[in-house]
């Protein structure tokens, strides 16, 4: 049987990215895993996995990691732009550093990393980029102004890039999860905003588990190259917001 191609996943040290790493690896793909913390990626214990501790805003470091991974496993066939950050607060209370980091990580990085692998995909007339957006890129939620802004922007750029690459048979997909039980709340400080989020999360049974999203990703990716499931919105059935 032919070897399955290389999958690159950013933000693979926790949550959705770690689940995607497990699911794509279990499906037989070699994986390049990127996040700042190496230990949780290595602890996944996946075969044919290159775990690289890198800040994905350091595009040169990511480029070096991709070169190493491609030397061992062949060209990247799927890039999952998953690394992201959410800091919730009314704008007046939001840490200015968090504003910048959310835009850098949620918007700028997916574009710059796509630029790294696109020339190869365009030349091969195949490959997939999967951007992890959010239902917060479709609907405004209280205290989510900047986070929603980053995800609305990412959704727009995902569709724009899809149109650019469509004539070259390269797929660009959006995966937009609803509430998922992960470490994403780690940047929202204690107080009313966090309490309200947690109360809603509890009221809907805690949200999806990350593996639910990873399974949807694998399903979308496994469709034949001529089929682009452009947008996957995956949320708890009982989530009404
Ligand atoms: P987590 O906080 O569990 O995971 C975020 C991941 O991003 C971690 O692996 C983290 O690793 C990595 N990361 C953060 N900053 C950087 C950086 N500068 N460089 C490299 N890696 C970085 O959250 P989720 O799994 O929930 O989030 C994954 C994606 O899913 C995000 O884009 C998020 O917006 C989106 N999403 C999540 C939803 C949810 O309810 N959980 C709903 C909708 C969308 P490390 O700290 O080791 O660098």
TrEMBL record:
<dbReference type="InterPro" id="IPR002347">
    <property type="entry name" value="SDR_fam"/>
</dbReference>
<comment type="similarity">
    <text>Belongs to the short-chain dehydrogenases/reductases (SDR) family.</text>
</comment>
<dbReference type="InterPro" id="IPR020904">
    <property type="entry name" value="Sc_DH/Rdtase_CS"/>
</dbReference>
<dbReference type="Pfam" id="PF00106">
    <property type="entry name" value="adh_short"/>
</dbReference>
<protein>
    <submittedName>
        <fullName>SDR family oxidoreductase</fullName>
    </submittedName>
</protein>
<keyword id="KW-0560">Oxidoreductase</keyword>
<dbReference type="InterPro" id="IPR036291">
    <property type="entry name" value="NAD(P)-bd_dom_sf"/>
</dbReference>
């Amino acid at each position: 049987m032919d070897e399955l191609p290389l999958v690159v996943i950013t933000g693979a040290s926790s949550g959705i990215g770690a689940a995607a790493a497990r699911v794509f690896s279990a499906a037989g793909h070699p994986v390049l895993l990127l996040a700042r913390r190496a230990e949780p990626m290595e602890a996944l214990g996946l075969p044919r996995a290159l775990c690289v501790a890198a800040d994905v805003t350091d595009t040169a470091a990511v480029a070096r990691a991709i070169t190493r991974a491609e030397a061992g496993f062949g060209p990247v066939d799927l890039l999952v732009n998953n690394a992201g950050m959410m800091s919730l607060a009314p704008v007046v209370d939001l840490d200015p550093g968090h504003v910048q980091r959310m835009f850098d990580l949620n918007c700028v990085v997916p574009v710059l990393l796509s630029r790294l692998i696109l020339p190869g995909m365009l030349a091969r007339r195949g490959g997939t980029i999967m951007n992890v957006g959010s239902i917060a890129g479709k609907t405004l939620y209280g205290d989510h102004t900047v986070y929603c802004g980053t995800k609305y922007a990412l959704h727009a750029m995902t569709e724009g890039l899809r149109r650019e690459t469509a004539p070259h048979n390269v797929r660009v997909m959006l995966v937009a999860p609803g509430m998922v039980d992960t470490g994403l709340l780690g940047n929202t400080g204690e107080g009313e905003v966090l309490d309200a989020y947690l109360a809603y999360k509890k009221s809907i049974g805690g949200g999806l588990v990350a593996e639910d999203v990873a399974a949807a990703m694998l399903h979308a990716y496994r469709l034949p190259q001529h089929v682009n499931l452009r947008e996957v919105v995956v949320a708890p059935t009982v989530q009404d917001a």
